[in-house]
Structures are given as C-alpha cells and as structure tokens.
Amino acid sequence: MNAQERIIRYWHAVELLQPSQLKKPEDSAGRSPKDEFVHDIQSSNEPFPWEPGSEASRQPLPLDEIDKRTGKPKVYTWFHTLYVQIFPTKTITDALDRAFGADQGYRDPAEREYSALYAAEFTHDGQLVPGSFTLSSEAWFLGRLTSGSDWSKDFNQDQTSIRQQAEARLTGSVNRQALDELTTFVIQQCGLQTVLSNPEKAVLRSCSRPVEVKGQQHDTISDTAVGVIPAKAAPTSRPSAHVVADTSKGGGTATGESITRPQPRQSDLPLNSFLLDDLIQVAEAVATGNTSKALSQYLDPNASITRHTIGSAELESAIVDHLLPHKHPTGCWPAEEHRGLVHAQQLAINFILEQLGEGAGILGINGPPGTGKTTLLRDLVAAIVTQRADALAQLPRASDAFQKNAKETGNASGKKQNAHPLQPDLFGYEIIVASSNNGAVENITRELPQRSKIDGSWLPEADYFGELGTLTSGAPSWALISAALGSKSRRSKFIDHYFFGNRTREELVAITGKLQYPHGLQGWLSGHANQYKSMSNASANRQQRWQQAVESYNEAKAAESSIRHSVDAFLTKIQHIQSQRNQLPVLLSTLQTLENSLPDPIAVLERDADSGLLAAQSRQKACAAEVLQHQTRKPGLWQNLATLWSASRAWQANQASLQATQLRAEQAVAQWQLLQHHQNQTATDVQNAIQDATRLQAQHIVSWLQTGHTTGDRQNELHEPWPLPHWRQARARVFLEALRLHQTFLALEATRIRANLDLANALIQGQSFSGYSRDAIRSAWASLFMVVPVLSSTFASFDRSFGSLGCEEIGWLLVDEAGQATPQAAVGALWRARRAVFVGDPLQLKPIMTVSDAALEHMRTHFGVDNHWLPNRHSAQTLADQATPWGRTTGPDDHQSWVGLPLVVHRRCDRPMFELANRIAYDGNMVYGTIAPRPDRETPAHLPTGWLHATGTSQGNWVAEEGRMLQALLAALRSDGVAPGDIAIVTPFRGVLKKIPALVRPYRGKGKTGKINCGTIHTMQGKEAPVVIMVLGGNTASPGARDWAVSEPNLLNVAATRAKRRFYVIGDRNDWQRRALFCDVMDLLPALDLHAEDIGGALHQKALASRDRARATGRYRSADEVLDGLRALRDEERTRRTAARKA
C-alpha cells in the first residue's frame, strides 16, 4: 500500500464515524401536502406508515395539479424511508472514549443526537426497494471494536451481505414481525447484542414523502433520482463507476473499451457519510497508479514547490510581469458599472491561468471575508468559456466539432440511446463549483445568472437562454450560465427546468410574473433541428450562419486586442526598466568584488553612485601619485651592484604591484562611472515612465517605479491594475460573443447535441448505462457544459452527480469555502479534476469533526500515517495552500500558516468590524474598501457598534440576563425602524441558540423580510446582515466553554464579519475583556448603555455621554433596568405624540 493510498484509507475509516444527521420529527400542523412527513414510531403496536391507521396515512397528499406535458391530473402517493433501531450517538462516543481515551478540554455538544442501526426505503404499500438497505457504518464500527475485530476494512462487504439477507427476508408488504427478525439478525451479525436493546422496544423513525406516480405504475412504484419508476428497475447495488482515462494534453481520448454502470446509483439515504464509497474507490484507483496531478499535489506532505512570499522584494518584478495586459484573459465578466478586478484579484486570475491553463494541478486562493471571492470566480468562468470559444472558432464547420463516423449506440436506463463523441480539443473546459456547504454552492450558481450581476447596458443584448436561466436560478436572469446539482431532488429539478422547461403555476407567476410556460432546451433544439431539416439549402445556410458567428467573435477579439496593444510602446519601456533593474545587482556585485581587491575598499551598497565615484577617483589619483613617487625611488647602478641586483628586483615587484593597483583603481572608476550612468539613465527612464503610467492610471506601475513595490500599498490594492479606457467593456464583449458562438453551435448541431444531452441527463440521474466509450461519456458531459458552463454540487453529493466521470475528466474544479471542508471531502472531486482552484480562509470556520482527537490519533497509528494528515489539523484549503508556490504567512503569532494568493480588499463591513477582524486574524494585511451605502439605504439603527453588558449565573451555557438584554436591544432596533430581516443573531454555543427563538418571536414580522436569522456562528459563514448581534453565553461555573470560544480567532472573526453596518456583542464585559482576543479589541467595541439611547433618535448624544460614564465607572445597567427604561421612554413618547395630535 503506497503512502497516498494509506492516507485515503485512513480518511475512509474516519468517515465511518462521521455519519449524516437524521431528520428530526416534526409537528404535522401547518405541513404542506408536498412536504416530507417525519414521525417516530414509539411502540410495537403502532402501525407502519404504509399500514391503515398510521400517522402518515392521515396526512394529505398534493391535489389538483396538472401535468403540463400530458394535460392530465398528477397522481401522488407515499414513498417511505424507515430508520430502524434509533439509538443515542452518545452510545458510540462513550464506547470510543473507553477504547481510545477521552479528549481533554471543552467541546461544544454535537448537534447530531441520534443515529440508527440501519435504514431502508419502502414503496407506498410497504415493499422494500431493492438496493436501498443501508447499514450504519458507525454501528458496524462499534460492533467490530467491541468484539476485537478489524474495523479498518470489510464494511462494504458486510453491508452487501446483510443487504442480501434483508432483501430475502423482507418480501411483500413488510410487517413488524419481519422487520424485528431482520433487526435481531443485523444486531447479531454486527456483534452489538450487548449494546443495543430488544428490537421490539426500539424506536423507528419514518420519513414519508409524496412522489408522483408515472404512467399506470400505481402498484409497483419506487423512487429514483427523477420521479418514480417501476420497482423492477430500482437500484440493486452500489456500482463502481470509476474508470481509467487517458489524460494526455487535449483532454483525453477513447480507451477503446465500452463503459458500463450495471445498476442505477443508490438513493441519497442520510445515514452514513456520503463520502464512503467514493473514498474507497479512489483509494483502489490510486493503488494502481491511476490518479490526477491535482490529487497527487494535494497529498504531497512536502509540497514539492519553491515558495515565494507576496510582498517580498524578490517577487515584485515577477508580479509586475504577471499583471501585464497580455497576461489578462481575453474575455471577462460584464460586471456592474464595468468594474474591473482589483490588484490582488487580477493577480490571482492571471496566475491561475498561467499555472494551470495548459496543464494540470491545484492552487489555493486565500479569501478573507468580504474580499470578492465570487467576483474573482466569475471572471475565471468568463475566461474559461472564452477559451472554449477559441477552440470552436478554429473549426471550419460546426460539424467538425464531432469525431468523424463515430456515432455510438448504447443502452441508458433500459433504452437505446445515441451518442456523438466530440473532438478531444473540446474537452477540458468543464467547470464544477463544489463545497461542503450547500449555501456556498447555491450562492454562486444562483448569483451568476442574475440580471443584477451584470451591467444593465448589456441588456437585453446579453441574453443566453435567459428564460431558462430564470427557471433554474429562481430569479430574473440574463443567462443559463450556472445551475446547482447535488442531491437527487436538485438533479431532478435541474433537468425539469433546463431541458423540459417545467414549472408549477405558482413558481411561474412568482418568478416571471406571468403564466407562460417557456420551452425547455429540448424544445429549442427540436425547433432548430426541424428548421434545418425543412430547408432546401440547409447545408449552405448552416455554413453561412457559422461563418458569421465566427466572424463576429473574431471581430470582438480584434477590437479587444487593439486596446490591449495600445500600450505596447509603454510596455517596452517597462520591460527595459525591468532589464535595467535586473542588471543592477550584477553591476553592484562586480563592483564590490573589484573594490574588495583594492586598499580602502568602498562599501558599494552604502554609497550612492556619485559619492562612490568621487571616492574612487580620489583613490585613483592617490594610486597614480604613489606610482610616480615610487618612480623616484628606483635604485641606481651602485645600489644594484651592492645588492647583487636584489634592490632592483624588489623595486620592480613593488612597481608591478602599484601599477596593478592603479589599473584596478582606474577600472573601479570606470565601473563607478558605468553605475552612475546606469542609475542616471534608469532614473530618467523611470521618471518618463512614471509620467506615462500616471496618464494610463496604472497605479501599481507608478508604485513599482517609485518604490520597487506593488503589493501592500493601499492605493494599489484598491485599483484595477490596467484601467485602459473601454478595455473592460471590450473584454466583456468578447465573453458575450463567446456565449453567442456557443449558442449558434448548439443551434446548428441541435440533433447531435440533443442526443448527447439525453445521455447526459441519464448520467446526472445516476441511471444504469452500457455500451459507451469513454469519449462518448465525456462528450455527453462536455455537451452539457457547452449549454450550462458551470454546474455545482456539495462534496457529499459529488459522486452521485458526477460519478460517471473518470480521472482528470473534469476541466476545472472550483472549491468555495474550502476552509470549512475536511481534507477527505475533496478527494473524489480532485481525483476527477484536471485543474483545481480552492478558495477559502483557514482563519474563518474550520471543518467540523465529530470524531474525538484520541480516536483520530489511534486510527492514524493503525494505518501508519503521518500526523500531518490528521483531519482535525487541516482543512481542504490548508492542503491546497501548501501546494501553492505564491502566497504568504498570515495569522496571529500563535496561529501562523502559509496561505495561497491572498485577496486583501475588504468591501463588506463598516470600519469597526473590519478593524476587529484585521487585528485579530490578518496581521493588518487586509485593506479597507467598504463603500458606505446611500443615506436612503443606511441602517436606521441609532445605536453604534459596541458592547452591551449583561451578567448573571448560567444554566449550562445560557445566561438568562443576556437573553433579557437581547430583547431590550431588539425592542430598540424595532423602534428605530430596523426591519427584522436585516437582523441576524449568532452565538458560539448550541445551548444558547436553543433559547433564542422563543425570545425573538415577538420581534419578528411577516413574510421573508420579517424573519430574524438565528444560528450558531458555524451556520452563518457565507451569510451577512446589516445588523448582527452576538450573544456570547458560556458556562459561568467553568471557564472551559468561554476559553474554547476564544482559543482561536476563527469564531470571533466570522461573527464580526457577518455584520455590514452594526455589530453588537452581549455578554459579561468584565469577564470577556480578560480573555484572549477580546482583550485586544475592546476599544473597537465600546460599552453601550441602552437606557440612555434614544429610541426615536433625539437622545443619541445623551447616549454617547452615558456610554462614556459607564466606561469610566465600570457600572453597567442590568437588562431589567434597561427594559424598564425602554418602557418608560416609550410611554413618554406616546404621551408626547398624543398631546401633539390633540394640539
């Protein structure tokens, strides 16, 4: 077993103990007929959900829906998932603690409280869905551990064996007796007799969801990735879909072998980790040497690269070079107000494309909060799409995109299906956004298509399947540029939207404002295919249309190129200055070597050329004088005779030495003159170049010419490197023309593209297939990415979405919020990716590990893996950063780490929150770039950012006094006119979060804008709000919880940077100000006194004075006093207004 395989197998073992969260039972009151119904079956007498009298049978199903395609009423029935033998997760953690030892120190209690022995899916009438039985990996692990068996292997084999028994035992409509007998068998097979109770007394959890009945399959239905199919076609096993791909330049070619996935993929049962299957299969592939360069670099413990620190003098010239106009991609995003990328963003884009564009590998981008990660990624998307357009534009005819005479006919989900392999040159442009966080991938894929994310001047010209983009994104869109896959329901919805154009009546009216069903892409392609079939001169017409599209694209590129090259003469000057500056160290070194050979050597680096030259000339004169003086001491004839000519020989030796010294002194003068000329000429050239750079607004060039530095200067970082007039618009037009060229290609090759998309849809749905080459599978995906350039998935669903793609068959993997992802989460995606860019921040939230440190250490030792690979030490981001050559070391003194290319301009928060984060986490390296909103968009909160003191005795981590202070603050904000939807409440502790919803309920409004967002800090990354309130909590009887909250800057950093305009901290100021982090930022969080704050705005200055008194005296009002004061103020205000009305 090689080292990388051992690492992956170790991570697989860890994932056995990282199961999914079970869905919690819910009150059926207010349930929509389309919602899932989750219910616990508490006793053996309670009927199963498919049996008469069950709770599920009493729930309503959707009615009165019409199928748009058939015009007939839709029929729904139930589909059930049972989680059997529910047990507390503490059973597992206690057993692991006994076996491996317990962790020391505080750990916030896990959100996941219960697990199950196994889960299975059942049809509406209680028949087991073949292949759906899923054994709990952690229960299996516990059985192996307690019995002394090897827990590091054979889980899949044991699960398969027990699944076969389940399918043999559970026939027909399953009853309680059959299920109890199976449960007893599973307990015995897993060796859990001493751990789990009698099956007859165990609790079962039922999750019942409505599914549509397709056709006449009312009695034999089972759910798959899209809708309902006959039970005989249901999943029967979890297949191996990994394949070896030729990853030569050009993207890979056919292997000559047909590829088969014999069965559909298993459904998404939330019981075990969704990473398990992918990790074990990648480990098997790596064992045979079948791996990607990106994954190899990711798993390289020594990160075999030479690191260069951004900001160091040795890198500045290279940075200037990387930012030259010819390094910018031809196409860019048509951004709002035509705004370009700032210095660090553009450097990152250019570096990514140079390092990875023609090759393979992985890079990390450090993205602190509010520094424009999405802005960067959308420019990268535009660049990649434009590169594929370059490849298309090289084709004489649109049909030349396909391999000649290569049509394949295979079987997809029981149906014959054609596929048309593309030329390999069109592979490698696929873009997938992935994350461990559903919100992160959805934010990006929903944002890119929205009309508000491009400049309005491009509309309506910039329309690339905009109507379908609206359907897939859920908001008015300009393009079908991206879409979210992932879970089974998301994949199904994506196909319904983009391909068929399906929407419910309610969704259509809500999004488009009209009841008009758009044609899906299927209809669009069919229309174009039929159009050309009916033309008498179709071939000539197609060719003319293709040539026109290519010409339009090339014209846009030519216009962009003209602007790009308008600065060529200036760039020649810059390159000359770079050459001059590169020559300077050589000149200085040569001169210093010469100086060191002379008496009284001049320290070259300590002198300017003028003073050095004067000193050298003075020394040259002294040497010449000494030679002349020595001439006068030449021995005469008698002296030579007396010394047998030894005097003459000594004189001649001295003469030669003095002349040599004189020669070197003359050479030194010449060298000083050369240095003087070089510096004077360089100074003249630099001065002229500064004038040109100033005229061109190339601020970073001005800075480099003046100081030798480009990075670290605030003005440089805030500006676009080369804001040439109309260049950004010209580059954006290239991108839009690239999309138009794609659209023309799709229209001209509609028949073959439609066939490829039919196959792609089957692959997305996880259906079985056989008889296709690797090129056919890749071409189906490549065709889909031509239509929708960006698809996304969580890592948990990655294998289910993209499992049919093999090693290095994804062109670009873009990982967002990579700092939150465990290192093992990215393995399957990296194995499939040719190029990977990880964007994240190790100083924000870290990955959540539910496995104890002691267990991780024991398992690591078992696999013989270095402690570098402990998943509680690293995130996916930190491993990607370690493989990135350009970056810097950042973080507080005791948490320093290397990060890849850092983004630095922060544009989200008001100054206090920015300063707080910059101080505790980023060494002051972030640059403040937030633009204050217009007055009409500014928050009406009069209370400034600061600290509300509340102290009291806790119950667990909850301090009731803090809750009352929270209510007082919410009352004040409501009185100020702050909308509930503009407020977010965060806390480090789950125990505190449980108390908050009941407290804030009176302050909520109606609709989406009336909801106050509440969560732990861990659930809030990637979100933001104008006003953020942090309720600290923490056990007052034990310091462990509060020390944990400030043990690293991550939690406070994330909490503060969620707030755009106000950040309020509620807690015991006297306690927290003595703790780490807070002790450094109390000046940024001044003490506030709500009692003195003016609810209506007139007493603001009085509030500030009261705050100052409170800070001076250390006396803070209690929450009860504040509430009493607020009530008094409110009563006083009402009295005043009543009197005013009467007057």
From TrEMBL:
Q: Show the SUPFAM superfamilies listed in the entry.
A: P-loop containing nucleoside triphosphate hydrolases (SSF52540)
- InterPro entries in the cross-refs: Coronavir_polyprotein_1ab, DNA2/NAM7-like_C, DNA2/NAM7_AAA_11, P-loop_NTPase, SF1_C_Upf1
UniProt keywords (A-Z) are: ATP-binding, Helicase, Hydrolase, Nucleotide-binding
Q: Which residues are in the DNA2/NAM7 helicase helicase domain?
A: 343-849
State a single Gene Ontology molecular function: ATP binding
Composition bias of kind Polar residues appears in 255-267
Looking at the keywords, is Hydrolase present?
yes
A Pfam family recorded for this sequence: AAA_11
Where composition is biased (Basic and acidic residues), the residues are 23-39
Ranges for region Disordered: 21-60, 233-267
Give residue ranges for domain DNA2/NAM7 helicase-like C-terminal: 958-1069
Query: Does Transferase count among this protein's keywords?
Result: no
Task: Name the source's superkingdom.
Answer: Bacteria
Q: What family is it from?
A: Belongs to the DNA2/NAM7 helicase family.
Name of the molecule in the record: DNA2/NAM7 helicase-like C-terminal domain-containing protein
Q: What is the species listed in this Swiss-Prot or TrEMBL entry?
A: Lautropia mirabilis ATCC 51599
